[in-house]
């Protein structure tokens, strides 16, 4: 897993899972704490995430809200969009451009 960027926009790549969760949490919390306005997470380079990785994103979302910021997901790959829809988190998290639920392939 790699995260590059600053307190306004971060690009997350690789796997966001139980192995990388602690490092990702540290970087995301620092970005939330050090910035102002929307924090954009570009997930276009993300290969996969598991429940722990999704929990890290939700934790960053909650922390951003407490700091008066908004976490915005950009470039969410289709398979991860399906997970957001299945867990109904697409209703809670801000996804740039939204998620076209009707256009997602069924599994």
TrEMBL record:
Lineage: Bacteria, Bacillati, Actinomycetota, Actinomycetes, Kitasatosporales
Listed NCBIfam families: ant_ant_sig
Superkingdom, natural source: Bacteria
Identification of the protein by name: Anti-sigma factor antagonist
PANTHER family: ANTI-SIGMA FACTOR ANTAGONIST TM_1081-RELATED (PTHR33495:SF2), ANTI-SIGMA FACTOR ANTAGONIST TM_1081-RELATED-RELATED (PTHR33495)
Pfam family, one: STAS_2
Matching Gene3D superfamilies: STAS domain
SUPFAM superfamilies xrefs: SpoIIaa-like
Family: Belongs to the anti-sigma-factor antagonist family.
Residue span, STAS domain: 1-107
MF terms in GO: anti-sigma factor antagonist activity
């Amino acid at each position: 897993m790699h995260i590059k960027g600053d307190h306004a926009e971060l690009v997350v790549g690789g796997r966001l899972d139980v192995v990388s969760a602690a490092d990702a949490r540290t970087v995301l919390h620092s970005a939330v704490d050090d910035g102002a306005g929307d924090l954009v997470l570009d997930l276009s380079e993300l290969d996969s995430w598991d429940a722990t990785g999704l929990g890290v994103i939700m934790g960053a979302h909650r922390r951003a809200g407490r700091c008066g910021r908004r976490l915005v997901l950009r470039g969410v790959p289709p398979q991860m969009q399906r997970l957001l829809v299945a867990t109904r988190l697409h209703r809670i998290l801000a996804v740039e451009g939204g998620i076209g639920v009707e256009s997602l392939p069924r599994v």
